[in-house]
Amino acid sequence: xxxxxxxxxxxxxxxxxxxxxxxxxxxxxxxxxxxxxxxxxxxxxxxxxxxxxxxxxxxxxxxxxxxxxxxxxxxxxxxxxxxxxxxxxxxxxxxxxxxxxxxxxxxxxxxxxxxxxxxxxxxxxxxxxxxxxxxxxxxxxxxxxxxxxxxxxxxxxxxxxxxxxxxxxxxxxxxxxxxxxxxxxxxxxxxxxxxxxxxxxxxxxxxxxxxxxxxxxxxxxxxxxxxxxxxxxxxxxxxxxxxxxxxxxxxxxxxxxxxxxxxxxxxxxxxxxxxxxxxxx
Length: 281
Fold this sequence. Notes:
With 281 residues, this protein is of the alpha/beta class. Helix content is 50%, strand content 10%. The strands form two sheets. The protein has a five-stranded mixed β-sheet, with helices on both faces. Strands 2-7 form a two-stranded antiparallel sheet. The chain starts with 9 loop residues before the first helix and ends in a 5-residue tail after the last strand.
């Protein structure tokens, strides 16, 4: 088992980033298409390619990247970051002609008090699965309006691609990605594998991420704590899917209880995400 805190081989990373599910948008890291995953619950169906994308923040997107983004059928972007993050890291939303960018923060400004952030960073720094579950519960409890906006978009726009992102494209982004894939009936192991791909997707920005975290007192003299914050282990997502099922009643019940969706909404969203798989014979 390799040490998941160590840098990955750059040639291996480049090779993985050049093929699906990774997608190239110049100036943006960790971009993936959530399409082409087979549904276990609905055999003969796969998730629709070119419909749902996940990534890290778009603040450094280049002009070439903007054209690449539009060519991917992306007409809407949901930014899950808080105002506090955007100001702190000086990473404003870009302007992309023909693309609507919707600020849809999971956490509000008051959730970023020094006390709240100190507690959150302590949990992240441990790198323990139980700590991530506490953090992920906080995300689920706060994300009703934010995640609800994404699901309503999918309900109402069956052919219009969208991208959702947070800062690194790992936690908030990983959770809404998992919920969407669960609604589509994708196998838990496949969902956990998708989550773990952020290990590869964030690698080109390792130095930038570490430089940011080094400005936080907790991480300044503790490199391992900073790296723990960015782990994305298969078992973390497996534990999250169990939490989603046991504490929140599963993706469908969560969507109804926390996002205010109806049974019909969930059915339409599922139908819009799935498409018949074509025979490869």
